[in-house]
């Protein structure tokens, strides 16, 4: 116990534990009291060097969330779920964006080796495939939980959704709605979730007696102009109505963009289902049918597992693999009655 | 120069400067070389404790971005602009979300006092009005730049857009399109940008010989159900067609939601303009007319000013106040020809 903390407590007529908690920014202490304590501590030139004191305690009070982007509503919602848990634990959530760039991802993960955060929640970026940069993480011993986009080569708890089943359901609905062909618009087959959704698509095609045509499986990458070009080529050549599964929010909205450009009508010429958590899916023209992931719940679940690990309470002996189901919201973009 | 760095350089047949840069995660060094150096350093039990070494150097290699949310396309785009600059400077960007909660904001800002980041870019949260929690920051001497939502009470560089002119232009367009009344949907008048947009609205009303009716100025806060209720009341009572300015993206889309619920047609019954950077504004039914802020450029400008301050190169003697113009994108939601 430092002499300064005792002095602050005495001079402000507060309990030592209150001062100590106020200096640690505990949620148990009111903003007003925190301010009083901190201001007085400043007067006394008491430097609360969290940095230095954390080096001693080996606790930073931060958890990191590493995501490919925040412009996608899945990630922004999942982050909200993570923050709901972190706030209760009095932790700050700091967010790093990789922009689907594995070398940025590597640089961020490398930083964790030097102990900037207590734990990491991660949804991996797409990109070539090498996972060496993530394996470095294991050497750092910082608890890690993957959510949504997992890395199979690394042993860590995962929180995912039923991507295979969702891909299956989406494909089946488009077949039922009389699409002459069904296309799958992926981003990269290197990504666990895209692979699973694609496998669901393939299974539904086979189960419904349809051939799998590789020309209808488009891995567009992340370059928007390339995706638009591939989509335009597909939509001008395919027999219509064609069904399209956009395996990400961005890809689904690009189908709308290209249809508009080519004057194709949704759902008459093209029927679309997108994996998306967009609040305004129902305001699009026509409203977009979505597979909606339980983003908030997934964020919460992943954070809960992470904090269990941080607190040394392993949920169970093995590695946790939580799977939470997605929901299919049917809207105008798939057309009317089954055929 | 540590003995270990020399040993690593000798054993791996690299220049000492290369090893040093690789250990500092410089962008000048290839991923491959970095990995080689780091792996070998690990073998030698060389602990690159950035944490400890940064305490000495007083440099963390991080800048913080503090924003109310990331689900709004303005903020996600501005962050991309910030990251474009930070990456060149070999800095990590770490993002903190306040969720429009001033006590979270206070807690985040308080953390900066203890030297976790080298500089801060901030868009303040809405909320009551007290800025004491931000004033604490001044005591920390960490360079700070405000973007978009500024705090007038604190002397710091700002990057904003022409909110007053934009509010004026939006209002004038709705008047020209024959709206019998024009409503302004704000969030809180405590926020600089909302206040400026509202002032633009008021000025346009007066300049066009229209009365300012306080019933048409709605400060909805951030509770969605409250906003929906106020909007429903407004839309059932107002003389139509009514023009509505949604001063945030969320508010503009809520106008669509409420119109749908009340079976009101946009643009026949209700004409809407929203402040929004949504890529899919043109895909809504009908396409949303937007005031689009130069979000990416604003992020870039703010980060550039921050790095100038970090590098000790003040752009000029006074405090920089950069203003970048927004664009009005006219789409179906305001109806056809002028009346």
Structural class of chain A: alpha/beta
Distance between the termini of chain A: 76 Å
Main sheet specs of chain A: 6 strands, parallel
Uncertain residue segments of chain A: 49-56
In which order are the strands of the major sheet of chain A placed?
2-1-3-4-5-11
How large a portion of the residues of chain A is in β-strands, by DSSP E?
15-25%
Radius of gyration of chain A: 25 Å
Let me know the number of strands of chain A. 12
H and E string of chain A: HHHHEHEHEHEEHEHEHEHEEHEE
Supply the number of helical segments of chain A.
12
Overall shape of chain A: it is elongated
Q: Helical percent range of chain A?
A: 40-55%
Protein chains sharing the most extensive interface = A-B, 58 and 58 residues
Write the layout of secondary structure elements.
Two copies of one chain form a homodimer.
Chain A: H1 3-12, H2 16-23, H3 31-43, H4 50-57, E1 62-67, H5 73-88, E2 92-97, H6 102-112, E3 119-122, H7 132-140, E4 144-147, E5 158-161, H8 163-176, E6 181-186, H9 192-207, E7 217-219, H10 224-237, E8 242-246, H11 249-261, E9 270-275, E10 289-292, H12 295-310, E11 321-324, E12 327-329
Parallel strand pairs in A: 1-2, 1-3, 3-4, 4-5, 5-11, 6-7, 6-8, 8-9, 9-10
Antiparallel strand pairs in A: 10-12
Structural commentary:
- The structure is a homodimer of 339-residue chains.
- The first copy, chain A, has 339 residues and is an alpha/beta fold.
- In chain A, 44% of the residues lie in helices and 16% in strands.
- In chain A, the strands form two sheets. Chain A has a six-stranded parallel β-sheet, sandwiched between helices.
- Chain A is built from twelve helices and twelve strands.
- In chain A, helix 9 links the parallel strand 6 (181-186) and strand 7.
- In chain A, helix 1 (3-12) crosses helix 2 and helix 8 (163-176) packs across helix 9.
- The N and C termini of chain A lie far apart (76 Å).
- Chain A is elongated.
- Chains A and B meet through helix 3, helix 4, helix 5, strand 2 and helix 6 of A and helix 3, helix 4, helix 5, strand 2 and helix 6 of B.
């Amino acid at each position: 116990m430092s002499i300064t903390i005792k002095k602050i407590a005495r001079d402000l007529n507060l309990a030592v534990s209150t001062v100590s908690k106020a200096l640690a920014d505990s949620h148990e202490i009111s903003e007003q009291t925190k301010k009083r304590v901190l201001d007085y501590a400043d007067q006394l030139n008491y430097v609360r060097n969290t940095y230095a004191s954390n080096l001693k305690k080996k606790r930073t009070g931060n958890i990191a969330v590493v995501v490919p982007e925040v412009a996608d509503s899945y990630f922004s919602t999942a982050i909200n779920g993570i923050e709901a848990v972190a706030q209760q634990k009095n932790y700050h959530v700091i967010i790093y964006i990789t922009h689907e760039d594995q070398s940025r991802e590597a640089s961020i993960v490398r930083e964790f080796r030097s102990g900037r955060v207590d734990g990491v929640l991660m949804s991996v970026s797409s990109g070539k495939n090498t996972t060496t940069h993530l394996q470095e993480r294991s050497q750092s011993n910082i608890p890690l939980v993957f959510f949504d986009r997992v890395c199979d080569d690394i042993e860590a708890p995962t929180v995912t959704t039923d991507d295979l089943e969702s891909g299956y359901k989406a494909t089946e609905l488009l077949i039922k709605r009389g699409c002459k062909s069904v296309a799958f618009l992926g981003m990269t087959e290197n990504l666990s979730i895209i692979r699973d959704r694609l496998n669901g698509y393939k299974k539904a095609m086979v189960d419904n007696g349809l051939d799998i045509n590789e020309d209808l499986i488009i891995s567009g990458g992340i370059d928007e102009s390339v995706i638009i070009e591939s989509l335009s080529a597909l939509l001008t050549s395919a027999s219509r109505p064609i069904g399209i599964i956009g395996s990400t929010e961005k890809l689904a909205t690009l189908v709308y963009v290209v249809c508009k450009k080519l004057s194709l009508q949704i759902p008459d010429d093209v029927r679309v289902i997108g994996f998306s958590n967009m609040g305004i899916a129902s305001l699009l023209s026509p409203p977009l049918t979505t597979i909606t992931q339980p983003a908030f719940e997934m964020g919460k679940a992943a954070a809960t597992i992470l904090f269990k690990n941080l607190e040394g309470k392993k949920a169970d002996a093995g590695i946790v693999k939580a799977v939470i189901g997605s929901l299919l919201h049917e809207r105008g973009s798939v057309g009317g009655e089954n055929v």
